[in-house]
Amino acid sequence: MWRRVYLFLVLVRLYFALSPSYLHPDENFQGPEVIAGQIFSYPVRLTWEFTSVNPIRSVFPLWPVYGLPMLLLRWLWIGNGNDGEIPPIAVFWTLRVLMFALSFVLEDWALHELVQSPRHRRVAVMLVASSYVTWTYQTHTFSNSIETLAVAWSLVLIQRIVENKQRSSLFATAILAFVVVFGIFNRITFPAFLLIPGLRLIPHFIKKPFSLISAILSALLAIFIAIYLDTTFYTDHSVTWSYLFSHPTITPLNNLKYNLSASNLATHGLHPWYQHILFNTPLLLGPVALLLCFPHPSLRLYSAISGVFVLSIFQHQEARFLLPTVPLILSSVQLPKNKTHLRIWAGLWVAFNIIFGVLMGVYHQGGIIPTQVFLSNQPDATQAIWWKTYSPPIWLLNGKNEVLKTHDIMGMKGPLMLREVSALATCHKPSSSATAYLEEKEGTYLIAPLSATFLDSHTSNDSGLHFQEVWRYRRHLNLDDLDFGEDGVWATIRRVVGRRGLGAWRVTKDCAR
């Protein structure tokens, strides 16, 4: 019975992987968009992490995770006799399927190795498979999702090394060292999860020093490859050996320096030290947080504790930073032994994950990706103004961004937004056909959530601006448009949920005025 339920949950995970929700701009701008600009001819927009004087993001982990699949996809595309570039939306969905496969294979496999008891292992795998975090965050292209897999397999390798008393485990320690370097260049928070588990390796290295030598040599090789790739990526000219050793680009060091500055973190939002413990952990775990009083002591639990402790030191704390702790904690809890209590808890767990799964996996900024595909097919689109949404990934415009300029004004006040739109709008040309505008050479589009009531009085075309709605995607919720203080709780929820959706208006103006 449990195998059938597990298979069903795997299909649920695949469904959410193929849903176009958009959890955070970083899932595009810190990964796929960067590598897509290297492999394909898509014009891309690099964020400040990659364009600052001291860049803080490494391309070393991006190449094996995103670059190799893109190269393989391009090879298959060309090998089948296709002309031109692969449509970027095909690359997008390929990466989503890839993240699903990595989660399904590597994360679940790691749990099978880490949890020794068959009965406890079954519960752990089912909890992880039924978590909305696994369905959504883990199937998106986040560096945190990759970090989750790297942490899990580091723990697997540590367990294998410690438990193998007969051999020196030279190969396992070399692989572990490479994974650790990969994890650090992926996210500098990675070592936080290995502080306590790593202590178990000290007696092993004392007894078998060749294992330590193997780990050091492997780590040095990985560091050299990472620094070479980053230096080459961030240097305009060819990199010689002398330049590499005199001007190396060490992104984890730059990242650490940046995050140790409170003024830098203030631009992203400062949080109290207890943000992770009191708010972010319950947000990710839901009813499981009620079971943390009596967990199974394990290497996994100690890894999660050390990670939460270290991450709480930094003042900028987002829930996704704790993704590596989710499978570790879910595989360390004990379910209620009382059958009545277990049924109540199970009901809460199912309801919690269905609600957050649909919210985050389907509706959260869910119209951005489909709207970009829509704009890429609009022959007249030359200006796109995005208001009250996340930043759109321009690499999905399929080359349209060579003529289409994207304006991201998500936090701008309504009157200022109208001024921006008016400055970019083309002249209004009355026509009897609703699609006659497609034959024009230029066109300005405003993309905004339908819940933005400010637009109501303007889209009725009672001013000098003319708004023609040409696209609507209903499965979109804008949770950044909540205004409980001014509108009240119920009125705000009714507006945001009842008027869910993302719309695109073609805007023109009366040039005679």
From TrEMBL:
Major subcellular location class: endoplasmic reticulum
Transmembrane feature ranges: 58-77, 89-106, 170-197, 209-229, 342-363
Gene Ontology terms: biological process: GPI anchor biosynthetic process
Keyword flag Lyase: no
Cell location: Endoplasmic reticulum membrane
EC number: 2.4.1.-
GO cellular component: endoplasmic reticulum membrane
Signal peptide residues on this chain, from the entry's feature table: 1-17
Pfam family, one: Glyco_transf_22
InterPro entries assigned: GPI_mannosylTrfase
Membrane topology field: Multi-pass membrane protein
Family: Belongs to the glycosyltransferase 22 family. PIGZ subfamily.
Protein name: Mannosyltransferase
Organism, as annotated: Venustampulla echinocandica
